[in-house]
Specification:
Length: 527
Amino acid sequence: MAQLPPGIRFITSFTRDQWYRAFIFSLTFLLYASFHLSRKPISIVKGELHKHCAAPHEVELNYKEYAARIQPVKKLSNVSQCGWEPFDKNNYKQLLGALDYSFLCAYAIGMYLSGIIGERLPIRYYLTVGMLASGFFTAMFGLGYFYNIHNLWFYIMAQIANGLVQTTGWPSVVTCIGNWFGKGRRGLIMGIWNSHTSVGNILGSLIAAYWVSTCWGLSFVMPGVIIAVMGIVCFLFLIEHPKDINCSCTPSSSSKTILNGACRFRVQMPTLNAKEMSKPQDPEMEHLLIDSENCSVSLDSSPVATGEGRHGTSAISFFGALRIPGVIEFSLCLLFAKLVSYTFLFWLPLYITNVEHLDAKRAGDLSTLFDVGGIFGGILAGLISDRLEKRASTCGMMLLLAAPTLYMFSAVSKMGLEATVVMLLISGALVNGPYALITTAVSADLGTHKSLKGNARALSTVTAIIDGTGSVGAALGPLLAGLISPSGWNNVFYMLMVADACALLFLLRLIQKELRCNADHTLFKEH
């Protein structure tokens, strides 16, 4: 027989289950990237909604010069305008800020409800409806341009509605990816997967910038069309759980519990036949030998109350999810971590403009290095937490390093562009690393915690609680920065360092338990 081509050998080297996991990984990556793609236009279009206005005498001179050159004289309808009404007034900062806060506050409030609702509905249907609605409300903002709408409340209501429907995205995709990938390499895989936020931000910026100067309405309409189309793709192709296609991604296993002092160690005993035992085990099908929930989150826990969920399985209540050990601590930690991250997101370009004396475009391009550092930080955090099997300790270590790094950034950024580039990458990695780990791997771990007695339907609610609490910080951070920045940028950095310290403070109890269990486990193995 002729030897198979290299490409075919490569394709056939993967199992059916591995191909399905790769497909779900890629699909959910694109789905959530489209969510961020549709959020980005508002930050690009702000410069068009309010433009720099020349002084009245300058406008008059420009008009006369134009009239002298061009005959016959035509009326210039937009010469004296400073942008798009109502954002052309002197209080434009407050009006544009109202658009941001309306979206973020609606997102934070809606997230608490979204997880509970989504847990009781099929993910594919819930996510599809959310993406179609998000596409509509994103395009709705741009339709204000085509229909010449100048009512502030029209744009605020579009932002509020968009913030509410976009809460369908995160709990759904995290639940889906958590169903398909086991704990063996969850941190690393989700660290790579979480880069969809940066990819979506970059694509959204490029698409919005293409039309912003000529027809800013299309800067919203086109992203709205894209996320709606991706919603249709979701309906056609998303597979919620491996069981839906009889995929053997999670084999059945029995467990043996061993008590040793204050810690409980559970050894998983996979049930495999002789043929399966002869094959190398897929790392994604392997369970952790040590029950990480016992040691990394809680030393003891009790079953939580559940209700009826989708497909006849039990769903968890809101307060039942709060009783899962670690949910409250990680939620409050994320509140402060996301406060720091979103403050950089909204204020970093302006800070670079003021310190480095760059124009807005170059400052915006330079600020993307913070996101690049965040991608590497998320991957690094996931990799370290997988190797150490300690999520809280990994987050705590990065938060501990982030606070002095922020101080160094505020000092070094005044020394030149090269130093700023280096500190942007380092700060982005340390600030976004814990944020990415908590919203992905930690949420997935807690949503499948042992106290749930095998009920994985809590993942959507747990994810929504954690990210919803973090979104409160996302709304507070830019607001506090706006209030503090007039007194000096150093004070803003002091506020960010205090927020990092608070985030670390809420993890201390979990870190202590992880380290204590590790010491007890080492002692157990020695004896």
